[in-house]
Amino acid sequence: MTATADLAIRLRRASFNRALADADLAAIGPILAQNVVMVTGTDSGVIAGRKAQLMAWKREFAAPDRSIYTRTPDTILVSPIEPIAFEHGHWQGVAASSGILIASGAYTAKWRQRGDEWLIEAELYLTLA
């Protein structure tokens, strides 16, 4: 299960990154658990719930100077006793208009398998640059 889960989570992360780049809210929603929590990197703002996160992304996508964020997993640690996993990696945000790096750092995400799908339950970001 570990290799299969690792690949499934990496594929879901790639889909999430693609949805962010394409400003595709409809593709983001199914990747998030209903009670997902995000703690942002710079101000430690808490965005609780799928609806709240989708609203935050909607605002970001509408901004004239919007950023495109990419998360790149370094490791996926899958629990051997529960259908959960931790993803650790690095992230970056670039200006959509110029591709210039705006910020970057590290992150951790907790995933839970529901049926055949892996869903993000929590993400915690650290801004390093």
From TrEMBL:
- Which molecular function terms from Gene Ontology are attached? isomerase activity
InterPro entries linked: DUF4440 (IPR027843), NTF2-like_dom_sf (IPR032710)
Q: Which Pfam families match?
A: DUF4440 (PF14534)
Question: Where would I find the DUF4440 domain in this sequence?
Answer: 12-120
The answer to whether the entry has keyword Nucleus is no
Recite the UniProt keywords alphabetically. Answer: Isomerase
Q: What is this protein called?
A: Ketosteroid isomerase-like protein
The organism is Sphingobium scionense
